[in-house]
Amino acid sequence: MTNADQSLLDEVARLRAELDDANHRYYVLDDPSLTDADYDRRLRRLQELEAAHPALVTPDSPTQRVGAPPDAGFPEIEHAVPMLSLDNAFSEEELAAFVARVAERLEVEGDAIAFCCEPKLDGAAVSLVYEEGVLITGATRGDGRTGEGITSNLRTLRSIPLRLRGDAPPALLEVRGEVTIDHASFEAMNARARAEEAKVFANPRNAAAGSLRQLDPRVTATRPLTFSAYQVARIEPPQGDATHSALMAHLGDFGFRTSRELAVVTGAAGIIDYCRRLGEKRDGLDYDIDGVVIKVDDLRLQRELGFVARAPRWAIAFKFPAQEQTTRLNDVEFQVGRTGAITPVARLEPVSVAGVTVSNATLHNADEIARLGVMIGDTVAIRRAGDVIPQVVRVMKELRPSDAREIVFPERCPVCEAEIERLEGEVVARCSGGLYCAAQRKEALKHFASRRALDIDGLGEKLIEALVERDWVTTPADLFRLEAERLAELPRMGAKSSENLVAALAKARATTLARFIYALGIREVGEATAANLARHFGTLEALMSAEQADLEAVEDVGPIVAAHVHTFFRQPHNRETVDDLIACGLRWEEEAVGERPQPLAGQTWVLTGTLASMTRDEGKARLQALGAKVAGSVSKKTAGLVAGEAAGSKLEKAMQLGVPVLDEAAFLERLAAWEAGERERASHQGSDEEGEA
Ligand SMILES: NC(=O)c1ccc[n+]([C@@H]2O[C@H](COP(=O)([O-])OP(=O)(O)OC[C@H]3O[C@@H](n4cnc5c(N)ncnc54)[C@H](O)[C@@H]3O)[C@@H](O)[C@H]2O)c1
Ligand SMILES: [Zn+2]
């Protein structure tokens, strides 16, 4: 044997070992070690070597097999019709070659052949068997001949009919399709997993497959999975459908989801046109597709064409550029979001991912950096799908260079230098600069001016943006120094509206301590907490000098909120802003300690159903701020029930007992009136500051 022969044998053996290992990680562990692009490159190389040296082909080569053998944790299910793979085309030339091959076998013109095109959903393939219209078994593909029985897991998917629709179901139906997770659900699922330190999936495909292969169906039931049908493997008695596309429509009648993008085209030109169009749509879809599946539409012609080892001859998968690629992590920078959240951003060696050059990706937070174990200099796999921000999903630790550097989380905000705080139990680190941090300025000012804070009439979002962008306003105190003539220079701000705004600012100077505290935008200090703090401490000085323990003594204030308040007033620039505001004439009557106007004192209220304008907790806090107790169940003593969308038994009970019921609109109206009562009292007390507006 020559050296060349030996190195060929070595390469084939190495590729097979790598592919076998990758298959196990991908199909059994749902935790791939390679990107699909890297996997596909290796498989292609092995196919080329085997094509050039047919004697090297063995029946157990990864080129001859599908998937991986089923996991022992599940019952085995034999597929009556094997679940195969698909041949791939990576270019338009390869698509044209596929049409030519089909045409040659069928001895017809390629342009005369009808093909059904559908998106290639990137999820996990499953097969469902229905007898007399009832779901009997559901299985994964496994190695194509034997799959894993996951019937109870599949029963939890709402898109899988447990019983076929219509009154004449076929005696036997075997349907195949893909189980997927859409982008938003996938992001939400991973965000939760990160917070709970549970398993984070690299991509929606792995998440779908991993969710299906849970030993406890209750876990599967919590996962946002969808089944879309794309094939009929068996139907008895035959229903007379002559084409694949007709069968798909028939599946729709039985109650299955099928692709909305399905289309029948003719010849190579029709296929190429479809692939281009779907490729353009890809980024706008809210689910992952990795290509187009093209099938000869005529079922008789499909039978005539038949199968080769691992794929049908009548179909091909046109592959889009992969959504995951590997590249080098050059550096990490820290960005400050509008609410102060600090996000580590990976600066990458630019790489083309699914047709777009990517040079930045998110690393989410410090926990994620630790979970990935990533260092500067590492080779990383990044993923870009749809309009979701590209993410680092994996680190190739075996490729780590010797000069790789640790990623150090900053202690001070890169924008304003304020301390970065990260509270126990929170994943996100935040700049404590608040009002002072340029990155947070717009949001802080919007909050400051909002109706339930200082209620500055006429100071809307657009105007705040214009003021901040011109650097006329950097802290809230600057608002009170604005002059009407200058404001009139702004676009869409006549003399009249400028004067009105100055008048509104003058009026807003007279406020309440509770509103003032709320307006400062201290983290997690909502209206109700601000009111409690004002009532408890009575003066701003007392609040500002309170220690952590004093703060925890306040009604409804726990250690986390106490820490936020404490840190806030320990920042010199926040103190300066507060002093500056008072110097600008902001004032309030000292709060009578322990008292506040409480129109609902002594009343018990109940909230039920979903409110569109606020969460139930917010509703509760606002009722409590007005003195009400909020209970979980309705009784004769209940003063009122707030019933949102889809209110159920509590609403019934309230009606039986004659308890007054408010729908959301009525509730909002009453809240505004009660809260305005409080506001009115405040303006009377500060009436010397009222403008003439
Ligand atoms: N990253 C890794 O380590 C790794 C390992 C193994 C496999 N893979 C990836 O898996 C793929 C190969 O797997 P494969 O053998 O399942 O082939 P495939 O995914 O290329 O094609 C076959 C599959 O397409 C799916 N499909 C989606 N929409 C369809 C439709 N409308 N009609 C018919 N089928 C449809 C079916 O689930 C079917 O099983 C490659 O993309 C490869 O990169 C990756
Ligand atoms: Zn900052």
From TrEMBL:
Catalysed reaction equations from the record: NAD(+) + (deoxyribonucleotide)n-3'-hydroxyl + 5'-phospho-(deoxyribonucleotide)m = (deoxyribonucleotide)n+m + AMP + beta-nicotinamide D-nucleotide
Enzyme's top EC category: ligase
A Pfam family that the UniProt record links to this protein: BRCT
Enzyme Commission (EC) number: 6.5.1.2
Keywords: DNA damage, DNA repair, DNA replication, Ligase, Magnesium, Manganese, Metal-binding, NAD, Zinc
GO molecular function, one term: DNA ligase (NAD+) activity
Cofactor: Mg(2+); Mn(2+)
Domain of life: Bacteria
Residue numbers annotated as active site: K120
Chain sites annotated for binding NAD(+): D36, A37, D38, Y39, D40, S85, L86, E118, R141, E178, K295, K319
UniProt domain BRCT: residue ranges: 595-669
Keyword ATP-binding: no
Residues binding Zn(2+): C413, C416, C437
Family of the protein in this entry: Belongs to the NAD-dependent DNA ligase family. LigA subfamily.
Function as written in the Swiss-Prot or TrEMBL entry: DNA ligase that catalyzes the formation of phosphodiester linkages between 5'-phosphoryl and 3'-hydroxyl groups in double-stranded DNA using NAD as a coenzyme and as the energy source for the reaction. It is essential for DNA replication and repair of damaged DNA.
Protein name (record): DNA ligase
